[in-house]
Amino acid sequence: MAAMLQPQIILLKEGTDTSQGKAQLVSNINACTAVADVVRSTLGPRGMDKLIHDDKGSVTISNDGATIMKLLDIIHPAAKILVDIAKSQDSEVGDGTTTVVLLAAEFLKEAKPFIEDGVHSQNLIRSYRTACTLAIEKMKELAVSIEGKSLEEKKSLLAKCAATTLSSKLIGGEKEFFASMVVDAVIAIGNDDRLNMIGIKKVPGGNMRDSFLVNGVAFKKTFSYAGFEQQPKKFLNPKILLLNIELELKSEKENAEIRLSDPSQYQSIVDAEWNIIYDKLDKCVNSGAKVVLSRLAIGDLATQYFADRDIFCAGRVAEEDLKRVTAATGGTVQTSVNNVIDEVLGTCEVFEEKQVGNERFNIFNGCPSGQTATIVLRGGADQFIEEAERSLHDAIMIVRRALKNSTVVAGGGAIDMEISRYLRQHARTIAGKSQLFINSYAKALEVIPRQLCDNAGFDATDVLNKLRQKHALPSGEGAPYGVDIATGGIANSFANFVWEPALVKINAINAATEAACLILSVDETVKNPKSESAQGDAAASAMGGRGRGGGFRGRGRGRGMRR
């Protein structure tokens, strides 16, 4: 009787939604599978593209897993984890964003029957972590180094990696053309880690083949005044002066007061203003510079002055472009024109202004520091050029990674099949339940070759059986065999130059396993309601001043005054 009279303990606010136990874990797994189904069809060279348009009406056509995940406004808390791993894969490696989402969802899908049968999720997590460690060790063992090769050999190997990345993108038809361009751009910036040293400029019109690489800097012609057309548009070995000051006629500050006793003195003040600007311009000319660039405006007087002296000038140059010119030409940005010495001037072999499509570009070629490169992209529709830029970003990241961590593995699902075989074999040596869990992890890895087949329209079961048979050969010669997209059979991925940096796969497996373990370890989801009172309080505080002032308002007087 006493137990029945016990008061009920209310711990959480009324209306709080709590779900726990097996049912909510299964619901989280289903949500992650649903997210993966969205990007599933974009995997591989025959992957489809997604068209996403938002409430502002802007349209994005993309094949890139991370871009699609960012644009989908996912609100399910567990599914958001997949968005985060796609973003982290994109920022860390650049490619493999679809792979990482698919793997994480597949690991969860394989875990689902065990969870439903009442297996404790910690047992699954332990086995998955073990399998992940084994998989990464095996991958490092299978990776092939491209270290110690000559520059030409290295270039062709890196181009193969870039081509593998680009083959699944919208510009896959011209992958060789763009792959060599990307490799040249990455080698041009050398050991510089800053990605913004490779500029990508987009010019609508023309076709993809009209895109070109500038071994230096290119930027669109800036706003110019009269006199600009009289300036020379091409120089050989010019000196370049970089400024962060305005070269405009400045009147005295508005609130300055000058008292004159004699009207003739007024002219001397006007002359002083003109002398200041002419003094600045003379110093620029005397520095010997033939190209003057400024972050701020260069006015009409200065433009004409430079034109009369055969000097090219451009004002309002974007900050990132000016930074890249600084890195390329070896100049230093000046905040004053006093004491401009030769050491602060940059130089390049050729400076010219060229017409590209409807735009005019200022191009600096043959820069001495050579720490920068610019890719000028051409193409039909704006959405197409946007997607081409995203594809090149992925390829640039891949080449940078391959250059730093110089090991590659076979692509086309070959490495996934080989690790799957290795884990199945290893699972047989384990007694207990974890044998089943590691087996299910191994099975999940097969999602990559299976999806490649599905997206290309091949019979996945048939191709996977052939791959399993090839990889099971005791000699180990079947390890580099993956899906052959061209014929619908299997082929040696290494011989076909379908390579990817080992780092991409290692990162993908690591991130996917972490995400799967994180979702499996959640046993309760608590959703706090937005309480009515909280909203009421917020509204009251927003109205604050007005509400309080009302008490003091009198007739015919201002607000907030006492009667």
From TrEMBL:
<dbReference type="InterPro" id="IPR027413">
    <property type="entry name" value="GROEL-like_equatorial_sf"/>
</dbReference>
<dbReference type="InterPro" id="IPR027409">
    <property type="entry name" value="GroEL-like_apical_dom_sf"/>
</dbReference>
<feature type="compositionally biased region" description="Gly residues">
    <location>
        <begin position="544"/>
        <end position="553"/>
    </location>
</feature>
<comment type="function">
    <text>Molecular chaperone; assists the folding of proteins upon ATP hydrolysis. Known to play a role, in vitro, in the folding of actin and tubulin.</text>
</comment>
<feature type="region of interest" description="Disordered">
    <location>
        <begin position="529"/>
        <end position="563"/>
    </location>
</feature>
<dbReference type="InterPro" id="IPR002423">
    <property type="entry name" value="Cpn60/GroEL/TCP-1"/>
</dbReference>
<keyword id="KW-0963">Cytoplasm</keyword>
<comment type="subunit">
    <text>Heterooligomeric complex that forms two stacked rings.</text>
</comment>
<keyword id="KW-0143">Chaperone</keyword>
<dbReference type="InterPro" id="IPR054827">
    <property type="entry name" value="thermosome_alpha"/>
</dbReference>
<dbReference type="InterPro" id="IPR002194">
    <property type="entry name" value="Chaperonin_TCP-1_CS"/>
</dbReference>
<comment type="similarity">
    <text>Belongs to the TCP-1 chaperonin family.</text>
</comment>
<keyword id="KW-0067">ATP-binding</keyword>
<dbReference type="Pfam" id="PF00118">
    <property type="entry name" value="Cpn60_TCP1"/>
</dbReference>
<dbReference type="InterPro" id="IPR027410">
    <property type="entry name" value="TCP-1-like_intermed_sf"/>
</dbReference>
<dbReference type="InterPro" id="IPR053374">
    <property type="entry name" value="TCP-1_chaperonin"/>
</dbReference>
<keyword id="KW-0547">Nucleotide-binding</keyword>
<feature type="compositionally biased region" description="Basic residues">
    <location>
        <begin position="554"/>
        <end position="563"/>
    </location>
</feature>
<dbReference type="InterPro" id="IPR017998">
    <property type="entry name" value="Chaperone_TCP-1"/>
</dbReference>
<dbReference type="InterPro" id="IPR012720">
    <property type="entry name" value="Chap_CCT_eta"/>
</dbReference>
<protein>
    <recommendedName>
        <fullName>T-complex protein 1 subunit eta</fullName>
    </recommendedName>
</protein>
